[in-house]
Each structure stands twice: as structure tokens, then as C-alpha cells.
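Deliverable D5.2: sample structural annotation.
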Amino acid sequence: MDIKDVAAVVTGGGSGMGAETARQLAKGGARVAVLDLNGDNAEAVAKEIGGVAFQCDVSNEDSARTALEGAAKAQGIARILMNCAGIAPGARVVGKDGPHDLALFTKTITVNLIGTFNMLRLSAAAMSALEPVNDTGERGVIINTASVAAYEGQIGQAAYSASKGGVVGMTLPAARELARFGIRVVTIAPGLIGTPMLLNMPQEVQDSLIATTLFPKRLGRPDEFSSLALHVIDNAMINGETIRLDGAVRLAPK
């Protein structure tokens, strides 16, 4: 799909991989709505790229509907949804203070999995009413963000891994269902990407993580994530798949 003059929505667009994807979409000529729980961050990125910003809790139906309706009013119904919003708490199933806090587990699933599905379902419903953009009948693309932790979750990542495993699991059935509307669904599972969350860790922790990466021996860059996302949008044959972006890393137990 050619992104020039196409409306796009990026959740979690106020920082990290979401912000970089918003920048690259705008650079390619897309009209970008930046959605983030942190409204100030969303505004800053939107101002930088000439887009629009909306404070949004992706896991809340009313918040998501309001943001998507505002984005559609400002720049048209989105043909591209980039689901980058998420959280990554860590807690052991049984820790020093007892069992894993159930509310934390629930929140992680709610934001990462239910929030992703919430945005997917609402965006797909709107996309399905649009006219196709080409003779193959393509109407839109939805790209979700999982993690290599969906496959090799570390100690302390039970909640996070479960949430991202759910995102991987719903990719193919969603793609199968939405194919009749000409909407593709793809998931990217990044490995160790140099976002603020990782870069704020002590250098020795970063070095130990990098040591587990096969090649290249470094953290991934947000622009490498956005580059893959733009290729997925452009390449109509990529559908129903989860793509690892990880330098062949296989996470150790801890």
C-alpha cells in the first residue's frame, strides 16, 4: 500500500518504537494521528511531524472510540493502524512478598492484549467501510507489536509473556477473518530494542542482554522497527504472520 496521503493511527506513539514509526510514516507522506496515554508526549511528537495527537487509553472502549473518531474527523478514517502501546512490568510468580499480584497480571493483559484487540476491532470496523485502494481489494493494514518474550519469556515475565503470546495467537485468526475486507493483519515481535525502557537500565544489564544476541552484537534501533513496519505496509504478500526482529537473540531464563 502506498502511504502517501493515507491516514494512519499509531498507538504508543509518544515515545520509543511508536514515535519513530509515526515519524517515518509522516516522512513518507501519511497523515498521522499519534495516540498515547501520555498526552504531552503525543502532542510533542505530533507537533514535530505535523500530525494530530490524542490522549488515549487503548484498553478503555470509550477512550479508544473517542480518539479514533477524533483522528478520523481530523484526517479521515485510518487505513493503517500501528499498535505500539504496551507496558512491561516484571514480577515473579512467587516472590519474596508472596504470590504475583493478581491486579498487576490483570493490568498487563488488559493493556497489552485487550488494548491491542480493542484498537484492532474498532479500526477494522471503520476500515471495512472504505473503498479499496487498488485492484486487489486492499483496504487497510493493521500491525501489532508483540515481543520475543512471547516465545522465550524470562523469569519475572509471566504476565508480560502471556500478554504478548496472546497478541501472536490472535494474528492469524484476525487476518483470516479480515481478509474478506481486504485488511491485512501482521505482528512484529521485537527483541532488545534501544528504547528508553532499556537504555535507562544500568550499563552492565544492557551489556549482559547484548551478549545473548547472535548478530549484530548490539541493541536494535527504533528506526529498524519502523523500517520493517513500513515494508510490511508496502508488501501486500505479508499477512497473518509474526515477524521476529531480534538479531537471532534467544532469551536466557534470567
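Annotation notes: Residues 6 and 30 are 5 Å apart (CA to CA). The longest strand covers residues 183-190.
The annotation will be released with the project's public dataset once the embargo ends.
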